Each structure stands twice: as C-alpha cells, then as structure tokens.
Automatic annotation (TrEMBL), chain A:
It holds the Pfam family FDX-ACB. Residues 404-479 form the B5 domain. PROSITE patterns: B5, FDX_ACB, TRBD. GO terms for cellular component: phenylalanine-tRNA ligase complex. Residues 39-150 form the TRNA-binding domain. It catalyses: tRNA(Phe) + L-phenylalanine + ATP = L-phenylalanyl-tRNA(Phe) + AMP + diphosphate + H(+). GO terms for biological process: phenylalanyl-tRNA aminoacylation. This is Phenylalanine--tRNA ligase beta subunit. Keywords: Aminoacyl-tRNA synthetase, ATP-binding, Cytoplasm, Ligase, Magnesium, Metal-binding, Nucleotide-binding, Protein biosynthesis, RNA-binding, tRNA-binding. The gene is pheT. Tetramer of two alpha and two beta subunits.
TrEMBL record, chain B:
This is Phenylalanine--tRNA ligase alpha subunit. The gene is pheS. One of its GO terms (biological process) is phenylalanyl-tRNA aminoacylation. Keywords: Aminoacyl-tRNA synthetase, ATP-binding, Cytoplasm, Ligase, Magnesium, Metal-binding, Nucleotide-binding, Protein biosynthesis. Coiled coil: none annotated. GO terms for molecular function: ATP binding; magnesium ion binding; phenylalanine-tRNA ligase activity; tRNA binding. It is found in: Cytoplasm. It catalyses: tRNA(Phe) + L-phenylalanine + ATP = L-phenylalanyl-tRNA(Phe) + AMP + diphosphate + H(+). The lineage of its organism: Bacteria, Pseudomonadati, Pseudomonadota, Alphaproteobacteria, Hyphomicrobiales. Its EC number is 6.1.1.20.
Amino acid sequence: MKFTLDWLLEHLDTTASADEIATALTTVGLEVEGVESQGKALAKFVVAQVVKAEPHPNSDHLNICKVDAGTGELIDVVCGAPNVKTGMKSVFAFPGTYIPGKDFELKGGVVIRGAPSNGMLCSAAELQLSNDHDGIISLPDDAPIGEKYVDYAGINGVVFDISITPNRGDATGVYGVARDLAAFGLGTLKKTDFSPVPSVGKGPIAPLPHQFSGDEPKAIRKFAGRYIANVKNGPSPDWLQARLRAVGLRPINAIVDITNLVSLGWGRPLHAYDADKVEGTMVLRNARGEAFDALDNKVYTLDDTMTVIADDKGPLCLGGIMGGIRSGVTEETTNVFIECASWDPELIARTGRKTGIVSDARYRLERSVDPALTEPGMELATRLVLELCGGEPKEPAISGEDVFANTVVEFPLGEVRRLTGLDVAPERIEAILTSLGFVAEGSGDTRTVKVPSWRPDVTQKADLVEEVMRMVGVDNVPVEPLARLNHVAPRILTTIQNRRRIARRTLAARGLNEAVTWSFISHDEATRFGGGTEDRQLANAIASDMTDMRPSLLPGLLSGARRNANRGFADVTLFEVGQVFLSDKPEGQHTYASGVRTGTAKIDGAGRHWLGKAGAVGVWDAKADLAAVLDALGVDIEKVQVLPEAASWSHPGRGGRIALGPKVTLGWFGELHPAVAAELDIDGPVAAFEIDLDALPEPRKKATKTKPALDLSQFQQVSRDFAFVMDRSVTAASILKAAKGADKTLIADVGIFDVFEGVHVGEGKKSVAIEVTLQPRDKTLTDEDIEKVSAAIVAAVTKTTGGELRK
Amino acid sequence: MSLETDINMLRADLSAAIAAADTEATLDAVRVSALGKKGSVSALLATLGAMPHEERKSAGPAINGLKNEIAGLIETRSTQLKGAALEARLKAETVDVTLPLPPAPTARGRIHPISQTIDEITAIFSDMGFSIAEGPDIETDYYNFTALNFPEGHPAREMHDTFFMKPGPDGVKKVLRTHTSPVQVRVMQKTNEKTAASYLTPSQDPPIRVVMPGRTYRNDSDQTHTPMFHQVEGLVIDKDSHIGQLRWVLEEFLKAFFEVPSVTLRFRPSFFPFTEPSMEVDVQCDRSGSEVKIGEGKDWLEILGCGMVHPNVLRNAGLDPDVYQGFAWGMGIDRLAMLKYGMPDLRAFFDADQRWIEHYGFRPLDLPTLFGGLSS
C-alpha cells in the first residue's frame, strides 16, 4: 500500500522525519518495501519561458523557439506542440535529461529540418503526470524561471510503500497506519470527524432489501446508502488529484476520487452510483449467472455465490469488489447514491478469487474492514461530497446488521514474559494496548482486555503478546542461549536419512553427478515408468509436462541426459537420490537412488584417452553402480538374489532385478530398452539402475553388532580350475550355487574366470570356467582329498546345469 | 716351454677374452673354456698329479693362483655386465611421467549444492541437540492448512499458490505441501497409529527439538520462483522456550552456516497463521558488489519467517498451550545455498546441466561436519 508523507501527517501529529517513520513502520510490522521521493524522476526539469516562438520555415507544424531556462542564455529549441506561443511559461528539459514518458534520454545539438534544437519543452504525458499529450504544460505567469519544476509544483513529497499482512485489515488505510505509529510513540493520532451530516428529507432510493433465501451464501451484512441530490461533479481539486496520482491512482472525477480517498485514507471502501441511471428498485441479492460490465472494462459472468447490488435491469455493482459501467459516476452526474457497506470477508475473498478481479475494495474487504465504520464512513463521504461538489444529502438508507466479534480476552500480564522473554512493566503493557484501541480493565496480574472492532484478528492471549511485542520492538527482546542437552545427542538421522546420505556420496565417488529433478513429470513418462494413476496427478499442473508425481527417478534423469546431449555432451553420468510416489499415501512415498550413464561414461572415464578408449556403457556398469550402493549400505550383492527379470524400461535380455526373497524387490539395473530410448528421444547406449532405499532390510534393533570371531586357518589354500559346457540359458548364479554347495566346509570361494561361446562348444552352448578355492581347516589336503572334492564339484555342477565337464 | 710361460700365455689369453666378453653368455663361455671340466686352466691343474713332488710344490700355487685370478676377473666382469644390463633396462623402461591420467571417479562425481546445504544445516543443528524429521510431499489439506490454523477461505491460503491433487480413491483432500510446516504437527501430535512409512518420524513428546528439511511446491514460476523448491523448518517445544531463545538459535545458526564471526538480524513483526507472535527476519549484508556478503554492509535481506507456535496449532496437536510453548521457523534451502555459494539463478538448480553440477557441486568426500569444518 502506498501513501505520501503529507497524507500521513493529516492523521498523525508528529515531528518525526521520513527516515524515523520508515524505521518505525518496519518495527511495528508494517514492512516498508520502499521510500521514494515522488519527484526523483523529474528532478532535472525546470520552469522556463518561451521568449520567442515563430513558425519553422521548413515545416507546417513546428516552431522555432528561444527559451529562457534561467541559464543566462537563450536556448534554441524546435517545438512541435500546437499550444506553444511567445511569452508562455512551461517545463523545460536540458539535453541529457531522461524523459520518463518517452523512455529515452534527450540528446543535445540536434538539427531539426535545418534548425538547431538544444532541449525540449514538455507535455504532462512526457513527465508521466497525466495522459495529457495534446500540448506542452502551460504554467502561470508568476512561475519562477529556472526553478526545479518538482519544487514549484510541489510534487517532491515522500511516498511510502508498505506491505500489509493478511491479518491487518485495519492498516489498509492511512488512518490505521497512523494509529500504529502513535501507539509506537511517534506522535498523536488526529481524530476524524465522522459525525452525522444533517439530511434534507427522504431520498428516492429506499433502504436496500436483502433478497436471499435461507441457506444461500450472503456476503452483505449491513448496507448504508446516501442519496445526494444536485451535486456539481467535475475534476477534483489539485490537492486530491496530486494525492491520488502520488500513490499510482488515476484521478477520474471529484466523486470517484472521494471514494478512493476514503478507501485509501481510512481503509473504508465506498462505491458511488449515478442515481439517475438506476432503473426501478435497488436490491441486494445473489447474481443469477448474469454477464456484468465492470468498471475495468471487462465482462464477468457472475454466479449465485456472489452478492450484487441490482436494479430491475440487473447487477449494478459486484458487491465489495467492483462497480458496473452502467451506473458509473461521470462528470455529468447530478444525483449520486453513495454506498458504504459491510461484507463477509470470506465470501468477498471467494468472489475475488473466482472472478480474478484485483481491486482496492477487495484488498481491504477480504482482510476485513472495521464494522463500526459503516455509517461513519458514509457520513465522512457525504461531508466530503458536500465540500467538493455541493448537493443536498437525503436521509441515509440503511439495511442489515453489522457483525461484531466483541472479543474479550483474559490476559495474564506474565504471558508477555512467558512467550517473548521480554520484561515489560504492567503500566507499559496497559498503555500500549490502550493506545491501540484496546480497553484493559482490572488490576494485579491479569487484565480483562476488550478488543476493538477493527481488530478481529486478535482473539487470544498470544495475539495480545504480539501487540505488546511489536510496540516494544523485537530487537529489544534479550537473546538467551538455548540450554545444551544434558546428555550426548541421541541419534540425529533416521535410517533412511543415513541411507540417502551414504548412497549420494557413494555414487558421487563413482564419478556420477548428482541431479535434483522435478517431482512431477509428464503423464506419458509416468505411465511408461509404472505410474500415471489419477491419485498421483495434479488437478492444477503448471505445465503439461509436469502433471504426474513421478513413480521413478529415471524419467527426470533421462530428460536431463537428453538436455546435456542436446548441448553436445553425449557422455553423461547423472544420479538422483530422492522421493518417488508409488501412491498418494504417505507410505507410497519411497526414496530411490537411481543413476544413468550414457555414451561411454564409464567409471574410469569417458571417451578417448592415450591409456585406452572407453567402450559403450552397458548392463555391467549399471550393475556395478547398484552393487556399490548396496555394499555401502551393508547389503552384499552376492548374498541377495540377482534375477534375470528386466524392468519395464530395460532391454529384456540385458537387465536384472535384485530381490530379497519372493516379496521384496531392492532394485533394477540394465540397459535402456531401445524402444523407450526412442520414445524419450535419446540416442546411444544408456545404462541405468534404481534402488528402493526403503526396501532394504531394517537394521537390527541393537545398533552395535559384535563381529563374528576371526577364523584364520594355519593350512594353505588350494585352488582348482574346472570348465563346463552347458546350455547358454544356464545362469552363472546357479553354477556358483551348485559348486559352493558341493562341500560347504572345504570350499571357501568359487569364481568364474572365463565365459565364452563359439562353434567349437556347440550351437546354443557356452563354456564356463570356474576356480574353486579350498580352505583346509584341520590338516593339509592330500591328493586323494582334492580328488574327492573335485569329483563332488563336477557332479554337483553337471547335475544342476545339465552340462558336462570339458575334457 | 716352461710352465711359467704356459701360465703367462694362458693368463694373457683369458684376461683378454674376459675383457672382451660383452654379455653374460660370452663371459660364461670364457668361464667354461677356462674353468670348466675341460677348460684350459682345469687342464693345467690336472697336470699337477703327474708331477714329481718337488716340481708340484712350486707349480701348484702358481696354477691355483692363475685359477683364482681368472675366477676373480670373471666375477668382476660379471658384476660389471649385470650393472650395465640393469642400467640399460631401466633406461629402456623410462616413461614420460607428465602424461596425464584420466581424472579419478572421485574427481568427477559431484554432490548437488542442495544436498550439501542440507548436510551443513544438519551438522549445525545436530550440535544444538536437534534431530531431523520428515513428512510426505503429498500432504492432506488438514496437515498443510487446517491443523496449522489456516481457516477455510482465509486469504493466507490463497497466498500459497497451492498445487491440488486430483481426488484419490480415499476421498481425502490432498495437496502438494506448500511448506514444511505440516511436519511440525506430525512431530507434535499424539497418535497411536504405527508410523505408516519408515521416513515418517514418530511423534515425539516435549521437549522437542527438530529440524525438517524437504521439498515444497507452489504453483508459481518466474525468474526467482520455481514450482518446486526446498525448505527447512525448525521446531522447539518445551515449557519455557521463548523468543529470546529463538533469536539465539537463529543467530547462532546463521553465523555457523555463513561461517562469519557475527551476523546482525532484524526481526520484523509479521503474520503467519501458525505462529503468534510472528516475525520475519532480515539479515544485514552488503549487496554493493556482484555477490551478497553476509555479516557486513548496510543492506537488509529477508531470509526467514518465524514465531511462537500458535496456541491453536499446539491444541490441534494435542498439547496444552498453557503448559507447553515453543517456537518454529522456516527458510528456503535453495536460497541459503545461493547466498552462500553465489549461484545466480534458481532455475538452474533443477536442470541437471552437467556443467553446472561440476561447477557448483561438491566433492564426494567433502562431508560437512563441525569438527572438520563446514565447507573445506
């Protein structure tokens, strides 16, 4: 909200400077967003006289002028304004001056059709003072040549711009701001004359009937109207125009300007109707789907939740929001009907939202306006109309009832100290509350506090504490250390938080870059990656590719990879550790750790290097990343199931699932399915994995685990190699399991050191070579012992795999 | 020909042969030709047996002397040759150590500034005795608004630019949480239900000290707003926690986070439905240069909102506001990161541009701790 210093001074008797006022405003919670000198942009313009103006010989509309701008020399200026004439005084800009209405800096030494021109005589539009661009500004003859125009015209005032929080409807007028400043100790609040203005008989408009049926939403509470006959409307006086312009409003005519003055000055919105344009009876009712031509020159379709002021022809005004064009007050208006009404803030807010109309009335009424100001506001407006436009006020037309909260709070004064730590004397607390309009009664430790009608936001003790605190100043609250715990801090991170942290650092240590991508993705992507159900869709998405909560991190990472590729980086490593949404329930939110490698972005580096050229990324890179994270989180990939079951996004023959038992899936890895890659517009190889960090087994309850005793055998290990030929479809996992099972005490380890296929092992066959490590426990192995276990291994592997030992 | 002549000739021949041998193999051939079973020196030694005693007395030492002399020469030459061979091998094995290696994986992978900042925040608050709590991103209207004392239809709800979820099968009104404050209620409220998900922190009894980082969402996108961003919420509940302590916590946190010896804060009364009194906090800074410097200068920068937890919120969570009281605050993680590390554009945070992550990211093992220094 904007207001000028001189406007404030009409409500506040103070000697404080603009700086002191700005500091005080922020301290009491009316945050100053800007303090501007109104004339700052116009500081370089001066008053000047056109000493001579004669027609330009080479033009039919230009004049060549000699201008006296108080510099001691006459300045040559070519001027195109139709009203320029010898002897007139106007506003002059020297070369180098910024012209706000034109948004350029004036050049000097220019020649216009052969005549030199060193400056400019300006119109009001060029100074952005009004829309008048029909000619240059004409100043009275006594305007002093050479003086700064802003000083001469008195447009050098200070403009404050403050931000009002939604609870402070009372501060949406300059008067309310002054009340806060007075309570803060910055001066004395000046009272406004709200006294009734005598009437001259009854007006032609009767109190407006409230035409609502039982359970209809009814926004109107009390409607006060006043018919004023025979007004002389016209432009409002300069002081009022200047005041409105200073805060960014366009003066319209005296009556409309008065409604704006009361709205901004007292936070009490009004509306004025041209009474002669009202047809039939004025009533209050809800709209009936009518189209409404509003004063902002737009047409709105109103519905039956919105209250209107209507006549026989339809809505005249959308209640509490904006008036209509049909009954708008113009300079020709002679009979006016002034409305000052009290509305339900919630319903005003709802109508405002539905129509999208942003008006000064809505801004105030949805924050709530003092219900005690309905009739006084009408009287004030009447008085101002009489002052500026004359006329005969008729008897007020009043219907409905205001709603008063009449809140009373039992306020133990110790609450101030309890909640803030501030020691404030009881007298000071009382004084603050009183100056804010509260009535504090009683003595001792507790006061019974009556809340003023303009502060419906104050309902309980804590609200009163805030009132006291903001007047004392939060900066005066003594800082007190929060006591340290009297024990070592318990565990700070939960298991899942710890897992995320470890997963992140592990993946980064493997050369992957951490990305943070949107939680919402396109519907197609969500569906492709296992989501897309309605419960995970936004009702009001911000963009068509951000509609669905992601069921997987991969779409975001793959999109990121594609953007990098489009920038010319084909070798990309990205990972994310973040939330995915398997349903709309809290338990449907899991944390995944996922990563992608594209092109040749292998762990040892991408692209060509003198040490060797990196090959395309593939399933093994994905499996290695996944295994590294599992290992970092205490899960040995050798001890969980690696199943040849590809994820839906994966190449069916180059992807696997990591499982723990029949029910729990820990993750997936693989190469991106070529069809998915094509859908996502991604070229080249992609290796990807995802791990469900929530699916990992919970750690044991007891945090500290004793390690099993270290069993070091004194006998040397022996190793033996075997090669088998078997069907191509036999999995390595089954071979290893069979070999290990042949002798569980003696066999310490089994590794695969060679796998190959080729014509000499047979069509559809493969050869797998394993190395078995034997660890004797109680004696050195004899050849016979080794023979025996070897035979068992061969038997077990051939039996499980259906293969045979290669000779 | 006398024996002495034979010995001298042999010595001369063999010495020359040994000196001429330029490989271990030719030297060994000389050794065999001299000292081998059929070697020339061995043959001479063999003549001793047939000699008369007197003759042998003088011939023995002479021949043995030759043998030892030759063996010594061979040994010396052998050592020479071995040394030369090693030297030649080392020379041949020499490489250009200035050839660059590919960067190690740890030199390539980077942690996103948001994760790093959350880790930094965690490190500081853990020292003050706080633990970390979380709530769901898809939140019920109740937790996001109602429980936090946002009345239906209140303009403050509108200020949140809320993302609404399409109605799900359970018919519960859900939104994408517009702030991390709903976690406050989840932490405070008494519930007999088992926590539905492992990340949801079980409710706690006072005294409570938690910080709650997470993703938040608003339907807003421009130069300085993204529809998704990150906030961290703090909550302290006890029987005597007041604004004086709130000021201390925030000052200490900001000092530690920005790693400056002091910060000056300005508390402005403000309005949030879920706190009373409510305040916004500005930090003094210097904005004259290209980057914002915290802890110096004369400008103010709004950095967070805070206040005493509203009595209605305490009641909604089942706590008696005449017994328990406390304070809460919330601030933007992305914004803290931008202020500390100088990223100019919020939107780039979520673009997954590899160049950006490499430039603004952190080394995998730069784990922020208080004992090791927050940022190294």
